[in-house]
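User: Round two. Same drill as before: sequence, then structure, for each protein.

Assistant: Same drill it is. First protein:
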Amino acid sequence: MNYLNGALLDRLASEYVTGTLRGAARRRFEGLLAGQIPARRAVRHWEQRLVGMSLRLTPVQPPPSVWQHIEAKITPKPPQTQAATAPVVQPGSSRLWQGIAAGVGAIAVALGALLVTRPPEVQVQVQVERQAVESAHTAVLADDTAPIWVVNAFPQLGEIRVKALRSVDLADDRSFELWMLPDSGAAPVSLGVLPTSGGAVLSLTPDQLQLLTATSKIAVSIEPAGGSPTGAPTGPIPYAAPLLHVGEQA
């Protein structure tokens, strides 16, 4: 199959961003993203198109029950049961490496689908930060159920801004640490400790900024509180995702 066929690539990119491309097909497409600029450009086109739609929405804070409704919609239910339990992801599982690089626009699409199928009284609108459009590098780190962090890099500001889309449970003596995985195969480079809720700004050195342009994947490891004591990942790596370069040229 010629994955670089224009019409096919556009369709795969749209399904990837909206979250409807799943299983082996999604993993094959993620492999294509790592090595093909046209594929990353197609994904970026759909992300920016959907983000632009979401920016026109009036922001409201959804109640906690909204995420329960979303999970009920996107999680298959066994025929003999009335409710399905969200899959439990064990640290170290190979499934954790698959990641979800759906982009910020996918969040708006998932909520939009819910609005179509839910009764009129369920009105949910999501505010997506304009920074996601303006950033030079962006990624979404997720587990098997939903996105967790949105990562946006701003070279002109010398920083990365991270937003936790939902709280993540972690022992008090442990931290999540973000790493670049250079395309050259060099050792992972730390970008800093991630928040388990809310947002954070991670400062970047000139060397880190330069390396960021030659990196197509990021990952998260579980480290002692405050980050790795060795300068390299020492614990499990539960999350990974492609890093999309917004300003990339062929």
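Second protein:
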Amino acid sequence: MKFKIKSKKVEIDMTPMIDMSFLLIAFFTVLINFTEADQNDRIKLPISELAKPAEEIPAQVITLQVLNNGNTLYNNAEYTPDGLKQTLETHKRFLNYIRVKQETVSVIIRADARCEYSKVQDVIDLCVELRFINFKLRAKQAD
């Protein structure tokens, strides 16, 4: 008995796969950690030979940028020490509301090289008063 096999040409519609590829590219582009997004042109970091790139990026981050005049930039707004305290208290209440433990929050401090250390220490003391305990100080790598 002979069977006749008709060759069927199967065509695959690639449009959904291409659409999905572009969606994934857009998704991962948004998720990339742009460390320069937290930077400000008014901050000139001190140069240190001990500075090295961050090994891991914490899940919860608060980036504080201490200006030369002692004010602090947080979320692209400039705060005096009293205003910063109120803002961080609000942020702390929000973290408690969404049930994030403060021990998992890292405070990244980017201080201007021309800023007095006492002003940076005041910001650290304020954070400790609000029970933020993980700190990371940023500096520029020596060439």
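The chain has one domain: 35-141.

User: Perfect.
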